[in-house]
Write a structure and sequence with these properties.
Strand order of the largest sheet: 6-5-4-3-2-1-8-7
Shape: globular
Strand content: 5-15%
Number of helices: 10
Bound molecules: 6-hydroxymethylpterin-diphosphate
Structural class: alpha/beta
Helix content: 40-55%
Largest sheet: 8 strands, parallel
């Protein structure tokens, strides 16, 4: 059974859903709607990590994320879990205090926070910062390097007391389309490590490149079919969780492939 994590970005600038859920009541409403559509986890983020995104201050991110997590926890009342997608320790701590039970950590460095809060921890592979990460997209064997990095982090986190660890290859983070496709093709390699694998493919640039071209990728709003196909591929490769914007379509597809 593949879990569906619904993306809830409370940001003005996320590449797909930026600017839609800035008001915390509207954001919590969208979170509940995604749960009704089949999401198992709602992933709340207050900072875009798209390539070239500019950082936000800690105060700003706290102000975006915490009220939404609180309101969502109140409205969901245990019907689904909440994760917080952040690179900042104080935001992670405040969100876990406010009702999130998973730390979605694209920096793969905050496992002590997860251990302390007895929360789940998603370790995602990336290099550098969103502003410069694409200049670091150089690997001799992307599949082996990402796998080794994630396994090392996962083992460290587990030995430091994190009881629920996920690993995520970080599609699009310091990776070209060729790297993303190699990681997708070899997702079963990562699954074979025994750590539960999470993956975010939804509406990402490589989907647009395949539907269009590298020079002219199909825009994010035209990447639904490719995103669902990629999610189905990942489910068949044995991933434990897919992180998506289109919860209903993905949950329906998951039922059809028998993964859910
Ligand atoms: N991708 C994004 C953000 N967080 N977390 C995990 N674990 N895996 C991912 O692949 C991943 C992630 C980027 O997507 P999105 O949140 O939609 O966009 P933005 O960074 O512009 O807010």
């Amino acid at each position: 059974m593949t879990l569906v994590m619904g993306v809830l970005n409370v940001t003005p600038d996320s590449f797909y859903d930026g600017g839609r859920w800035e008001d915390h009541e509207a954001a919590a409403g969208r979170g509940c709607e995604m749960v009704d559509e089949g999401a198992d986890i709602i992933d709340v983020g207050g900072e875009s990590t798209r390539p070239g995104a500019l950082p936000v201050t800690e105060a700003e991110e706290l102000g975006r994320v915490v009220p939404v997590v609180k309101e969502l926890a109140r409205r969901l009342d245990g019907r689904a879990r909440i994760s917080v997608d952040t690179r900042k320790r104080p935001v992670a701590e405040a969100a876990l205090e406010a009702g999130a039970t998973i730390l979605n950590d694209v920096s793969a460095s905050m496992w002590p926070v997860a251990a302390e809060a007895e929360a789940g921890w998603v370790a995602m592979h990336m290099r550098g910062e969103p502003s410069d990460m694409m200049s670091l997209a150089q690997y001799s064997d992307v599949v082996a390097e990402v796998k080794a990095y994630l396994v090392e982090r996962a083992e460290q986190a587990a030995s430091d007391g994190v009881g629920e660890v996920w690993v995520d290859p970080g599609i699009g983070f310091a990776k070209t389309t060729v790297h993303n496709l190699a990681l997708l093709a070899h997702l079963d390699d990562l699954v074979g490590t025994g750590w539960p694998v999470a993956v975010g493919l939804s509406r990402k640039r490589f989907v647009g490149v395949l539907a269009g071209s590298d020079e002219k990728p199909a825009p994010a709003k035209e990447r639904l079919e490719g995103s669902i196909s990629a999610a189905v591929w990942a489910m068949l490769k044995g991933v434990a969780m897919v992180r998506v914007h289109d919860v209903k379509a993905t949950a329906d597809a998951a039922k059809l492939v028998g993964a859910k």
